[in-house]
Amino acid sequence: xxxxxxxxxxxxxxxxxxxxxxxxxxxxxxxxxxxxxxxxxxxxxxxxxxxxxxxxxxxxxxxxxx
Length: 66
Hints:
This protein is mostly helical. It is built from 3 helices and no strands. The chain has helices spanning about 10-20, 30-40, 45-60. Helix 1 runs antiparallel to helix 2 (about 30-40) and helix 2 packs antiparallel against helix 3 (about 45-60). The longest helix has 14 residues, at about 45-60. It is globular and about 25 Å long.
């Protein structure tokens, strides 16, 4: 919902709530950190975005978006 509204701060907040050692991907096998990385990028936090994209690639390196 927040991604569709381009509400990137809420995307980050919700991902931070959901992401844990037990829950790292959504039902489509997209790493949650991919969404946070995209949100960080869209609000201009490129260093944080890069770190999240790198971490997302360790969770699912074969995911086409990652």
